[in-house]
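Protocol step 4 of 6: structure prediction from sequence.
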Amino acid sequence: MINIEFYFVRQHVNPLSQFFQLPISLPSKNVLFSKSHYPIHLDIGSAKGEFLIELATKCPDWNFVGLEIREPLVRLCETKRKKLDLNNLRFLFCNVNVSLDEWLSDLDYGQLKRVSIQFPDPWFKRKHFKRRVLNINLLNSIAESMTKDGEIFIQSDIFNLIEYMTNMIDKSRYFDKKYAGDFKFIDKNPYNVKTDRELFSLKKNLPIYRAMYIRNSLLLSK
């Protein structure tokens, strides 16, 4: 059995490279899940998958989809998922900014209830900001598939990145902060399930910045 801790996977890949610009047709929800009518939690950048594996175990009446651009990680996560016989969870390889739209269009309207983007690649240099996963087009795609009160949860241990992400969501106009108040960030992970990076950051006493948004009633402009 391959131990993921010792299996080499590139930490970062350039999503704008030609290889990752090729669209991939993702399996429909009816192919992925036997109970395809369940609400869906989409985790963008699922990495080692431990967050979704624990969440899927705790919430059998939800379907969970982890999307990851590093294909070796997807294969390893799927191996773990199958071993645990988690039929309400799937890990898929794709570049979300190229291949997600078509898959979302197959969902029942409002079936996408939750989206999480946790500790994404920071791409620190300004000239590389366009490589960051969260952008207006992705937010619009998510907004179009969500009904009112759908959730987006984001977190990072890098302040400049979380500030970039919250500014991006604020500019989209289709999402509002779920928790009203003067504070921009929330103290706790609302799902009470931690990613590997979250555990690492907590162990190192690094600050973690978290924000939760909900889909408002504003109609998507075409």
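Step 5 (inspection) to follow. The first strand starts at residue 40 and ends at 44.
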